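Protocol step 4 of 6: structure prediction from sequence.
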Amino acid sequence: MAETGPYLVHDLVVALDYGQFGIFGGYRPDVDHLELLTRAQTGPGIASYECGVVVLSPHQNNFRMPLRIEVWHRRPPDDGDSWEEIAECTLTVEGGELRYDSPAVVGKAACEVPDGRYAVRVCGRGFVNRGWPGSTEPGDVWRVQLWPGTDEIVDRRIKAWQPS
């Protein structure tokens, strides 16, 4: 029987501030997070290193942001028409935990994810404005999909939200 969905799902509600968030599968004390942010800002809106990734959001903040983490046995189906922002990279998880973080946010989030090297797709939708969204709970949602990835995916933006 073919598998048709993720084998592990975590639905979180997190806080986003300063128009960025990070997903981390391990800790590297020598990583320059400011350099990562600069790479994301001057490049494809995403920047990764071995165990982490910084993602830029069109919204400046969302203090009740739904975030779904999905772990798949193989590359998930393409549903890009349902999302306004899409980016991909690779990430290694060590210690069985994936952590979410955003600057100046109290109360970080974490969930169990098996150790390994993953291809990662980050998708967002529900954006109302670039920068200040007019509220601290503008309604955007995000999803992070992980699947086994042995090949390095160069940080890339597949789709960027454009205001109407």
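Step 5 (inspection) to follow. The chain has a mean pLDDT of 94.
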